[in-house]
Amino acid sequence: MSIWKKDGFFICTEKQYLDVSVVHHFLSEESYWVPGIKLEVVKKSIENSSICFGVYEGNPAQGNAKQIGFARAVSDFCRFGWIMDVFILDEFRGRELSKWLMEIITEQSDLKDAAKLMLATNDAHGLYAQYGFKTIENRDLYMERKL
Prior knowledge:
- By secondary structure, this protein is α+β, with helices and mostly antiparallel strands.
- It has a single domain, classed as Gcn5-related N-acetyltransferase (GNAT) (Aminopeptidase, 3-Layer(aba) Sandwich), CATH 3.40.630.
- Strands 1-2-3-4-5-6 form a six-stranded mixed beta sheet, sandwiched between helices.
- Strand 1 and strand 2 form a beta hairpin.
- 26% of the residues are buried.
């Protein structure tokens, strides 16, 4: 388990502290990328992710924390990682918590040494560019399969 503290906020990689109801509510009701996602799918995606980041107001290890953000990744921690489901709840935005979360993910977590990190966004290019993300070169190399 890794835990970071800043100004009364905590980021923790321990899945047991995640409030899945908060994650599900945001993803299903507020996200543009998976509106209506089922709770069972959120639970399974968390279980099968290589690493998850809960962002909390208060210390989750002390049992007095409110989850206010989240991110997860699928990775081998050396060659590749895909970061997804990144969010900070609306009432906590404007405090640079998303920047702190991206700093932790890219510079301090087990993902920091992955040769390639990828993500997709509709509206946060400016945030991610600050942490070295760029538009994909050679897009013709990449393929996808959707069910």
